[in-house]
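Quick illustration, no need to memorize.
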Amino acid sequence: MLKSTIICPVCGGPISIQHDDKVNRCEYCANPVLGPSQSRDCVNHSGVLAKATCHVCGDLICEDCMERRAGDYGGKLFTIVNCTKKACIEESKWARPINEKYEKLINMDWADRSDNFILRASGLGAVIMMVFELIFILTMLYIQYFTPYGIVSSVSFFLFPGDAIIVMGLVVVGMNILGNLLGAILLQTSLQVHLHERQLGSGIALMILVIVEAIYLMYRGIFFNLSTFPDQLIVQVLLTAFLFATILIFIGAWMAISNGAKKRKQLKNAREKLGLSK
């Protein structure tokens, strides 16, 4: 006698109904499908409609008999359900139990809009800073080598002819590579400020980094004597771009610190309310 076949609602694969009164599993994704004549009641409580199927044994269980878990499997986050049998709990240990009350208390949907703004502001500022650093190094090379205001033009050589060109090139490139490194760290840190568990630390780090970047830029400006460069338009354009990027990063960092502190307090209050250990 041929068994009936249905389509799996999860992966679309064919499921051969082997048991009319038991759970059948899709051979492609292991999704459980109830048998046509199977009772929809909880296996432990007659007359109580089941809410889920244990992913291990396939029994139908109600809210009181289930344990929800969340875990990473193959790089994807899965939410599973198991019953309270010892063997099923043991098989489910790869995923962490979900505390429904705790999850409700630490719900942070209130921060979605502000976190999105924080990511956009700090991310845009960090990108502008990276572009600024690239243009800055090209500008410094131009001033030092192609204008009469560079150190190369004022110093013929130190020890032998031509060594000033080499030394100044190494100084300009070396100092600005450090600036580019700071910009890259700023960008990487700005991508972390919207993550709940890293927001406070990332916001503080971002604030410190932008201050260090500002101090280092002032040092480079003094070192290269940009205040006396005749074409101040170049300096003004660079300074404007830097200030705009700094303001965006500063706003993002400040909001990240504020949101991060509120979230940390929310987590602390939730743990205290439920008596959970740290």
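The radius of gyration is 31 Å.
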